[in-house]
């Protein structure tokens, strides 16, 4: 029986005014902060000794035909993915330079850029740095499935992508279910059953992601993940992101399959999975104070979902309304 492929809703492609390329400065800020964490993980002496020893042991096995492999899951159309990749390359090169037994054997680098099949890979590769220090290839497909051979990746990165669920929990659309999410586009101001349905789907998806990567990452390999999250002491439905989507829902009824986790929730899922340990976790806080800019960022990421339900004709009016509602709500000043 053929496998059913879920519909995908990639970020807005191209380089226009509402494209992801032109509206991802929030992610750039978060990515820049993540670079510091990633660089520290790859180069610092305080890294878990067992992990560091295994990581370097794998590097020592390299020959000229064995590249250091990096995969960015949810790469979209750039340019943030290129910043991350270059940071990892620089960190690994520095590790080689500081290790006498490795300094003369720096490997070549192979980078895989992953996103949905419908992602605008043409725009991605048109903007790839000419001076790149790695070989590049695209790997289309869902990161909730296996995408690479066993033990083939040395460093995995994903930022601002894992909050996207693989599918909308079916009970949200079932009128006979206590989790029927009538009149809402997310779980803000929804019954507890709705929140539980989102959490259960996120746990299932994260388990799939971790299990797939556990097969693909070399022993001692590393992952750097940047996720949208809410502090442990604040219920996810009360987060600023849930509030923004609630405003969007007041402009239009229907949509979204996103979950905004808490750090504790992620720690528990990693512990349950048992294939990885968390070496470091840090909050990265950044939110636009400009309603129009915020609306454009949401449009770059969410327009594909809305077009699927309502067509493209209403997009301008929808996001104009959203901009006004964000201004009137003062939600950005509360974040």
TrEMBL record:
Pfam families on file: Methyltransf_7
Keywords associated with the record: Magnesium, Metal-binding
Single GO term (MF): methyltransferase activity
PANTHER family, per the entry: S-ADENOSYL-L-METHIONINE:CARBOXYL METHYLTRANSFERASE FAMILY PROTEIN
This protein's name: S-adenosylmethionine-dependent methyltransferase
Organism from which the protein derives: Coptis chinensis
């Amino acid at each position: 029986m053929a496998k059913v492929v879920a519909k995908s809703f990639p970020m807005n492609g191209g380089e226009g005014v509402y494209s992801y390329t032109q509206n991802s400065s929030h992610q750039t800020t978060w990515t820049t902060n993540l670079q510091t964490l990633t660089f520290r993980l790859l180069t610092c002496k305080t890294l878990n000794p067992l992990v560091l020893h295994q990581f370097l042991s794998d590097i020592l096995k390299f020959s000229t035909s064995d590249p250091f492999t990096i995969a960015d899951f949810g790469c979209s159309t750039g340019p943030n993915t290129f910043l991350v990749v270059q940071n990892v390359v620089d960190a690994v090169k520095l590790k080689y330079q500081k290790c006498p037994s490795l300094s003369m054997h720096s490997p070549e680098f192979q980078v895989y850029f992953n996103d949905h099949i419908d992602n605008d890979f043409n725009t991605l590769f048109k903007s790839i740095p000419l001076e790149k220090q790695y070989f590049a290839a695209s790997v289309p497909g869902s990161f909730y499935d296996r995408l690479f051979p066993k033990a083939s990746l040395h460093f995995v990165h994903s930022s601002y992508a894992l909050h996207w669920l693989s599918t909308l929990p079916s009970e949200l659309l079932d009128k006979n279910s206590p989790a029927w999410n009538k009149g809402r586009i997310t779980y803000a101001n929804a019954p507890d059953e709705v929140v539980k349905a989102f959490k259960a789907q996120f746990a299932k998806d994260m388990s799939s992601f971790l299990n797939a990567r556990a097969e693909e990452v070399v022993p001692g390999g590393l992952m750097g993940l940047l996720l949208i999250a809410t502090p442990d002491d604040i219920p996810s439905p009360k987060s600023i992101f849930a509030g923004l989507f609630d405003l969007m829902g007041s402009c239009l009824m229907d949509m979204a399959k996103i979950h905004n986790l808490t750090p504790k929730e992620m720690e528990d899922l990693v512990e349950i999975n048992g294939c990885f340990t968390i070496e470091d976790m840090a909050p990265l806080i950044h939110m636009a104070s400009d309603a129009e800019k915020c609306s454009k960022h949401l449009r770059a990421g969410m327009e594909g979902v809305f077009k699927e339900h309502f067509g493209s004709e209403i997009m301008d009016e929808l996001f104009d309304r959203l901009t006004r509602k964000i201004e009137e709500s003062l939600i950005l000043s509360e974040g």
